[in-house]
Amino acid sequence: MADKTSAETPLVDVRHLKEYFPVNTGFFSSTPLKAVDDVSFTIKRGETLGLVGESGCGKTTVGRTILHLYEPTEGEIIYDGKPLKTKDDLREYRTKSAMVFQDPYSSLNPRMTVSDIIGEPLDVHHLCNTKEEREERILQLMDRVGLNSEHASRYAHEFSGGQRQRIGIARALAVKPEFIVCDEPVSALDVSIQAQVINMFGELQEEMGLTYLFIAHDLLVVRHISDRIAVMYLGKMVELADATEIYDKPLHPYTKSLISAVPIPDPKIARASKRIALQGDIPSPLNAPSGCPFRTRCPYAKDICAGSAPEFKEVSKGHFVACHRTAEIN
């Protein structure tokens, strides 16, 4: 999938990204909610990086901050070797990147026709010179995502969830992007429709050389589409490795628990495999534990885990983990 010639320079390079939201805690006082806390990773050109974790771990915030829908609190986003610093950098970046949102119901304007929804990015970035060129481009995009041309004059509420998500994907493709953030794009759809949409993402990637950050909580979906998988917990990255390696040899206790919960279709293997249930609730990001954020639910936690946050480091080629006790527990 990934192009080897440009493999040395990643298309997206995220360094020490932080996104804190101030939360009012009384008169004239606020506490930072650390939605994303010092996250670093790269995505190669033509690759799909899956990003997984429980609800509230900061996955969506990472995706939105990378696209500058939220202004990063700290950190650097380098796109194709160039840091995003000025307004001109951002303007250019926005014609090369796009987002497919989670909810196909609320992400489409109910007052706009399908033609206007898909055509909006073309108008914003002045990508078509004539009305005829614009209409032709809209019909091409609709055809590419499996919508009929007669759907162009209809409104979003007239379509099913799967068709609405196709409209959202066509809108994302309008600027001919290189990089797309897919924020749980199939979680609101029926299982039979999920497979169609995921296969379409794969076909589009091959045809157009797209690079994806694919955010999801369904590990089976992520495994199917991703080259590498990153695992987040409470605003921090805890593990990152090739998709097959993270399934076959998970090193972090949290990743092990997530993978043990994935349904296995073979009943014999399913009976033999042991489910690793986590104790307790996810702590609040407003009051995260000291040291390792996972220590309050980790069966292997020791004093060192409370004392300092583990470094997110490479333990074998391409396999990164943030855990003090990786060598002892594996």
How does this model look, in words?
The chain has a domain at 10-96 and 179-188 and 216-329: 3-Layer(aba) Sandwich (Rossmann fold). It contains 12 helices and 12 strands. It has helices at residues 59-66, 87-93, 114-124, 131-144, 161-173, 191-208, 219-225, 243-248, 253-260, 267-272, 303-307, 326-329, and strands at residues 12-26, 29-43, 48-52, 74-79, 82-83, 97-100, 179-183, 211-215, 228-233, 236-242, 313-316, 319-321. The strands form 2 sheets. Strands 6-7-8-3-9-10-12-11 form an 8-stranded mixed β-sheet, with helices on both faces. A 4-stranded antiparallel β-sheet has the order 2-1-4-5. Helix 3 (114-124) packs across helix 4, helix 3 (114-124) runs parallel beside helix 5 (161-173) and helix 4 (131-144) crosses helix 5. Residues 1-6 have low confidence and may be disordered.
Mean pLDDT: 89
Determine Rg (CA atoms, Å). 21 Å
Subunit arrangement of the protein: single chain
Examine the coordinates and then state which fold CATH places here, giving the name of the CATH topology of the domain at 10-96 and 179-188 and 216-329: Rossmann fold
| Anisotropy-based shape | globular
Per CATH, the class of the domain at 10-96 and 179-188 and 216-329 reads: Alpha Beta
**What is the SS-derived class?**
alpha/beta
What is the count of β-strands? 12
CATH architecture of the domain at 10-96 and 179-188 and 216-329: 3-Layer(aba) Sandwich
Element-level helix/strand string = EEEHEEHEHHHEHEHEEHHHHEEH
In percent, how helical is the residue content? 25-40%
Strand content: 15-25%
Query: Biggest sheet, in brief?
Result: 8 strands, mixed
**Unreliable parts:** 1-6
Supply the number of helical segments. 12
Distance between the termini: 30 Å
Q: How are the strands of the largest sheet arranged? A: 6-7-8-3-9-10-12-11
State the CATH superfamily name of the domain at 10-96 and 179-188 and 216-329: P-loop containing nucleotide triphosphate hydrolases
